[in-house]
Write a structure and sequence with these properties.
Layout lengths: L1 H57 L4 H14 L1 H10 L3 E3 L7 H11 L5 E3 L16 H9 L10 E2 L4 H11 L7 H4 L7 E2 L12
Parallel strand pairs: 1-2, 3-4
């Protein structure tokens, strides 16, 4: 019994040592990964700073600057904002689900006086979240323009009903984050081309 106990203790000590070594290696690898990530962020920050300096030196603006600086101008100079409101008496924004905060805010500012604005959107087709697009803009739109009429287009002239139904089943997995649920509207499409054949399922 003593020999078994000694052997068990020896095995346990070896296991503890291996576990400590493994944990140390894991921590070292994690520290290295964190260091590399910090270095990458520092490099990106340096590149961004250099980019901003070069634009200032050359008197240039990128796409983001055009929107941000215009937004800042309108906020600081109400007289200029009013001038542009008079120039753009009717505003239409397509693919509104792909607007980011500054783009949506620009539209809201321009239409804030006359309230003559129309936006077209389908949150199920939102594909630019990686660059800041926010479906929230669609819900916030109703806050800025409470008297806006909502028209839901459900007639489809491209696909057969079987394809539309299967697509609807698939996109419904995004519930409850879809506008159909949040805004309590019916978005299920109706095909003008008929039912069609049952789609083949490929696994």
């Amino acid at each position: 019994v003593e020999e078994i106990t000694k052997e068990q203790k020896t095995v346990r000590r070896e296991q503890d040592q291996k576990s400590k070594i493994k944990n140390q290696k894991s921590k070292s690898q994690e520290q290295m990964a964190n260091t590399e990530e910090l270095e990458r962020y520092a490099e990106l920050a340096q590149a961004y700073e250099t980019f901003e300096k070069l634009k200032a030196q050359e008197g240039k603006m990128d796409f983001g600057d055009l929107i941000y600086n215009t937004l800042q101008l309108f906020r600081e100079k109400p007289d200029i904002l009013q001038q542009y409101r008079e120039n753009f008496k009717y505003i239409l924004v397509d693919e509104y689900q792909d607007t980011n905060y500054t783009q949506a805010e620009l539209a809201v500012l321009l239409a804030g006086g006359h309230q003559r604005i129309s936006v077209f959107l389908d949150d199920d087709q939102s594909i630019y979240r990686f660059r800041g697009a926010a479906v929230y803009n669609a819900m916030d739109f109703r806050h800025h323009f409470p008297d806006a009429n909502v028209v839901v287009l459900t007639d489809n002239y491209r696909s057969k009903q079987q394809v539309l139904d299967r697509s609807y089943d698939l996109i419904s997995h995004n519930n409850p984050d879809r506008l159909e649920i949040k805004e309590n509207i019916e978005k299920k499409l109706t095909a003008a081309r008929g039912a069609g054949s049952e789609p083949s399922v490929i696994w």
